[in-house]
Amino acid sequence: MNKSNFFTIEIKNILSRLQRENEDKLKSSTVVSEVSGFIKKIQKIEPDKEFTDNAWTFWIKSLRGNISIFGNFEELKEDGEVDNYEDFVSLWKMEFPYKTEWHKFDVVEYNHTFYFYLDSEMLLRYCTDNRTITGINSKDHKLKQFVLQVVNFVNTEVGKFLKNPDNYNKYIAKKLPLRKRYGKIQRKVIWENLTESIRFDQQLGNKKIKKLEYLVNNINEKKVFEKITANEFLRCCEICYEANNYFKNTKTKMSPLEKYKSMADLRHGGLLDIDPDSPKEFAKWYKSGIWSGSHPWEICRGGNSTHITLQVTNDTDGWKLSLAGLYRQVETINMALALFEQAIPFVFRNKVEMLNMAKGIDYLGVVPENVVPKYCHGKFPKEDNIIDFINPWYDNELSKIIEKLVFWYPLKKIFKRND
Fold first, then answer.
1. Number of folded domains that form the chain
2. Are strands 132-134 and 25-26 parallel, antiparallel or unpaired?
3. CA-CA distance, 234 to 231, in Å (whole number)?
4. ∠ Cα 256 260 263 (to 5°)
5. What DSSP assignment string belongs to 20-46?
6. What element of type H or E holds 15?
7. For residues 91 and 83, is the Cβ–Cβ distance under 8 A?
8. Rounded to whole angstroms, how far apart are CA atoms 213 and 153?
9. In this predicted model, which residue has the larger pLDDT, 144 or 105?
């Protein structure tokens, strides 16, 4: 690897080697000395304390380089990976589409240890108490050389910043590609500009959206059940199922219990073992906590964020149902409308957000290309109330829309430390 330039493919290959665990300890080496000096230098910079730990972020650029760096055409052709040279070039550009790539370099300090990350892969850990590096194979000389080059490069970047902070911040703000940034875009803008998109407004229709708006403005979430049984709960589940026609193609008539067993998580925690018509047994079962850790309220099973719950809670006022399914919008809205029309007391979680989604007036959080678009709430201003996220960078049509129409959040500036 050239001392002045990193090549993207070499960084990719190095990072793939970091995924295995390694607890070798380096105590006396050039790497330790350079890392120790680098740590002292970055502490002249005000850390970012977004997540309470001290953190510093810099950027490393790499070059795609000549196609010869990518691989050998004759070997790939012999292996059957390409048929001709045009295929070879296409494969190269597909895997490395940018002439210049930007890599995020993070240092996080926690409990006397500094963690170094490159593109979210942990490069090493440095403990200040015993001046020891862990996470690097002590026999992997190529990896140690790479770490030295990275540290030296970022050290130079730190020097540029300390010399002229304003110029450095302006340079990053101007040059950092959009695909490495956070932004927001109104959902309906995507609907209006994307050739094919999942449109909640069309799936629901104007009539249901108007009913939803009425529900949001008029639902009385203080209403409760004085008592409730397992069968009454299952009947409420059935109303939710029927609202989405889950069983319209089923020839035999199914009971609420059978429908629940077909759709729910089924880790019911004993709910289905009690007398289904006894309020006392339901209350006893509920208050025993025996169901803790189970999923009796997961009435439509799914992943961590893709299930639907109809949760029963109890307080001094009585029994309450709470409907939640933020990421199965259309189904959950159908359920809410059905429960509301049948005058079932319930709390509709995220009802305003669901209405905004249905109308397309909510904002989607746009995340950088290497970020999974889930659980990203902390990356966006709280006042923007962004709860749904997209990573558009692997869809050519969508990414062009995003680049043209999105609002990009300003990059965080870095500052010299005052003390």
1. 2
2. antiparallel
3. 5
4. 135
5. S----EE-SSHHHHHHHHHHHHHTTBP
6. helix 8-17
7. no
8. 56
9. 105
Please indicate, yes or no, whether residues 38 and 172 belong to a single structural domain of this protein.
yes
Q: Of 285, 320, 344, which closes a domain?
A: 344
CA dihedral sign of residues 313, 317, 318, 323: negative
Q: List the one residue out of 302, 304, 323, 322 whose CA is nearest residue 313.
A: 322
Strand-pairing partners, residue 186, are 363
Mean per-residue pLDDT for 52-68?
A: 92
Predicted TM-score of the model (pTM): 0.85
Nearest alpha-carbon partner for 340 in 250, 219, 190: 219
Collapsing DSSP states into helix, strand and coil, what is residue 419? coil
Range name among 65-69, 139-143, 233-237, 385-389 with the lowest pLDDT average: 139-143
Question: Which tens digits make up the pLDDT trace of 89-121?
Answer: 999 999 999 999 999 999 999 999 999 999 989
For strands 298-300 and 388-390, give the pairing.
unpaired
Task: Give the range of the structural domain holding residue 131, as residue numbers without chain letter.
Answer: 8-64+99-176
- Three-class DSSP labels, 354-388: HHHHHHCCCEEEECCCCCCCCCCHHHCCHHHCCCE
Mean pLDDT of the chain: 92
* pLDDT reading at 27 higher than 90: no
Walk across the sheet containing 100-110 and list its strands.
Answer: 6-7, 54-63, 100-110, 113-118, 121-127, 132-134, 25-26
% pLDDT > 90, the chain: 79
